Every structure is written in C-alpha cells, then in structure tokens.
Amino acid sequence: MDNKDLCTSIDATGCSVAGDYPKRISLTLSAILNSGTILLLITGKEKLDIVENAINRSPRNELPVSHILNQSTTDVQVFWSE
Q1: What are the φ and ψ backbone dihedral angles of 53, each rounded to 5 degrees?
Q2: Residue 28 phi, psi dihedral angles, 5° rounding
C-alpha cells in the first residue's frame, strides 16, 4: 500500500457486485491520505458494522477501510445513513 501514484486500475471481473462494468479506476491510499480531510459516507447497517469493526477490532491490514480509519496523518469524518 505504499503506491505513490494517484490512481490505479482495477479489473473486478468475477466480483459479484461488479455487474456489467468490472473495469475500475480507484484512488490509491497515498492519494487519499494526501487529502485535507477524508469524508467517508456509508449506507446501511451492514457497512456500519464493517466500519465499527475496522475501528474497534480489526488488525490494520484485514480490511481496506482500516488503512484509512487507523492512521493519524489525515482527519477522517464518517457519515452514516440507513
């Protein structure tokens, strides 16, 4: 996760949630952490449980969101809606 590029390409072919458009572009962790503030918007109880697990119990490398939530470089604000 030490990629200094701003973005990376992802091929999510075979992923059950990718649908008809599996080719993706994603910001790298380095680009996200270089932000002034990170705003994380999540919806649904299931995702809230994942974020709470990442904050409270998850080892840093277990979930991608853990890399954002368990760092001290950039302010993170989490917004949740059902």
Answers
A1: -65, -40
A2: -80, 165
